[in-house]
Amino acid sequence: MSQYADRFTALIDACVLGGALRRNMLLSLAEAGLFRPRWNVRILDETQKAISEITKGATDGSRQRAAIEAAFPESLVTGYEVFEDKLKLPDPGDNHVLAAAISTSAQVIVTDNLADFPAEALSPHAIDAISADDFIADTIELDPSEAILALRRMRERFANPAIDVPALIHKLEAQGLLQVATIMNEYRAFL
Predict the structure, then answer these.
(1) 3-state DSSP call for residue 136?
(2) Strand, helix or coil for residue 18
(3) Taking the model in full, what pTM does it have?
(4) Among 15, 34, 48, 28, which residue's Cα sits nearest to residue 131?
(5) Which of 9, 31, 153, 174 is positioned for an S-S bond with 106, CB 3.0–4.6 A?
(6) CA distances (Å), origin 138, targets 71, 103, 134, 135
């Protein structure tokens, strides 16, 4: 595990884990030791449901969830429930996400639902909400050589269908990961 993962913890929200490209990028960067990913059972429940919904049942969300749990057994946050009732987020259904972040001492919550995690609710806990695009871009910039190597390995694992670098960059742009697409374009020779 790298020096970064020893000190940087990110709680990953289900809205980010549900999409295959975001999930693969984040977990590839985590596997490379660039940060410690964290989630709770409810986030994994929501992720499993989202995967099935996004793919209209073509992908087995339970298989994807099992793969995530097997690859990162240390990432499951427990005991967070003690914080849940004390939190005041715009959607009380998101309290479990912030509670898990507090419980695991995460520095950030990676979510594409930034409005659900206002700074005034997070700042007392020294936690920031950050979009997947910002987080992935920041993580790549932290250690470009290690990150690009991890993302090249990820791209090479795509076999059905295989995906070349221009297609990957196009997918990133189409999914609103514009900062990441720009960085990947800069490093395209190494991908």
Answers:
(1) helix
(2) coil
(3) 0.94
(4) 15
(5) 9
(6) 23, 24, 6, 5
Could you tell me the sign of the dihedral formed by the alpha carbons of 130, 132, 136, 137, in that order? negative
Q: Which two tokens stand for residue 125?
A: 């806990």
DSSP helix/strand/coil, 111: coil
Of the CA atoms within 13 Å of residue 72, those in its CB half-sphere come to 26
34 HSE (CA, 13 A, CB side): 24
Please say whether the beta carbons of 150 and 32 come within 8 A.
yes
118-173 pLDDT per residue, tens:
999 999 999 999 999 999 999 999 999 999 999 999 999 988 788 999 999 999 99
Show the DSSP H helices in 85-188 as ranges: 95-103, 119-122, 132-142, 144-157, 165-174, 178-186
The Cα–Cα gap between 134 and 183 comes to: 11
Contact 136, 150 (CB under 8 A): no
- Kindly report, residue by residue over 45-101, the tens digit of the pLDDT: 999 999 999 999 888 899 999 999 999 999 999 999 999 999 999 999 999 999 999
